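Field: sequence (string)
Field: structure_tokens (string)

Example rows 1 and 2, in order.
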Amino acid sequence: MDPIASRLALVTAFAVVYIVWGSTYLAIRVAVQDLPPGLLAGVRFIIAGLVLGALALARGQPLPRAPSDWRTAAIVGVAFIVLGNGVVTWAEQWVPSNQAALIIASGALFTAWFGTFGRRGVPLSTATRLGLLVGLCGTALMVWPQGPVGDAPGGDLFWPKIGIVLSTVAWSWATMYSRNTAVTMKPLMYVACQMLIGGAVLTMIGLLNGELARWTWTLAGIGGLLYLTVFGSCIAYATYMWLINQTTPARLGTIAYVNPAIATVLGWWLLDEQLTRMQLAGMAVIIASVAWVSVSARVIGRR
């Protein structure tokens, strides 16, 4: 692929992940009011895994035969889907979508840090470190409490927020683990296996917790489920897995900065979630840090 086409592909992929994943926090927040979190996340990824798996088979990509491939798919699937997504879905029963997205912005720092390890480790330049720290300062402005945030398990949303932080660490670690671990299966089948394994685990957790009795067939719930399945999983997740091997960890981490800005605007616009002047200032700082990191992280493409 020539340099111009390669750059265009990268820009397009980042735009897809920025916009779609920025909107999935809103979709989760809406859907989880009617559909229990374990089954919502589990069914979403099982359907997406079946669709992508069928597409992979149609393209001549067989199921993996090597035990190491299944082990890697299971590790990444549990980290990404069960811990990274399932916990966030659970937490958004109480945490507003914009706050959940803002906490996840810390993933940029974790991704860049984990990205310094492994066979494809990329050291952080001083400029990149500065950009990441500036971005976290912008995130702090957006998350800074403006008053009471409501009740939830553990009081004052403490445990749901801790869960989101831990899910962010798991997601960032899995990103770099996947980047540094070779598999023999083709990319589309690799993604499908992750989704099927992670979705099966979440569905089992939901069934064991008695969530089937809480499943309510509503337009908002099913609409959110369909949006998350088609756009959040089939399109954006597969695009993200492609990006892992196409760009640097620092640039990959900028996703965690842009998504919260989009989620905050959508939450304010459609769900009447609070958007303060401080949050607007934080969004401006975040966008500036993304530009800074993009300029400082000069190496593009495969490492």
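Row 2 begins here:
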Amino acid sequence: MTAARPASVAPTADVDPTATVGAGSRVWHLAQIRESAAVGTNCTIGRGAYVGPGVTLGDNCKLQNYALVYEPARLSDGVFIGPAAVLTNDVYPRAINPDGSLKSAEDWTSVGVTIGRGASIGARAVCIAPVTIGAWATVAAGAVVTKDVPDHAIVVGVPARQVGWVGEAGVPLEEVKNDIWLCPQSARQYRVSGGVLLGA
């Protein structure tokens, strides 16, 4: 059995000593991984990407260049975050309090974005916390997600709205008859029941 290769961290990356980066993961130039963040095995953290304090990434995740993942986000295995996508963490953002004093960590409560297994967030999309992106869902490039996204849903636009379904292969499904959907790549069939996509 082959031993897992160690994590690879570029010299210009900033990984806090309290963060963990799993075996086989790669952290590219100018990326920042903050204190107590946990990056799983075989992940890719692109150039200039940001992983906030205490954020957790599962195994086999990809954060593309300049993706910003703010605490306390939780990403399951196999999540893709496109270039310059943002996962926010503040419902009512302000730099100062009403009296003009600079806000500190004690002056607000961070809320996170949760992303299910295999989901993809397109380039420059914004997920407004607290939202949950379901497993295998796809958020289109440039979308602004303001409410939860079901498993396997495709959402587009500002604000994001569902326009279809997607399978595990990432290819939009085709409706072959009422409530029966087919993946054109894998030929797997699905059915929709009560607004939920299920295996056929």
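free_text_note (row 2): The radius of gyration is 18 Å.
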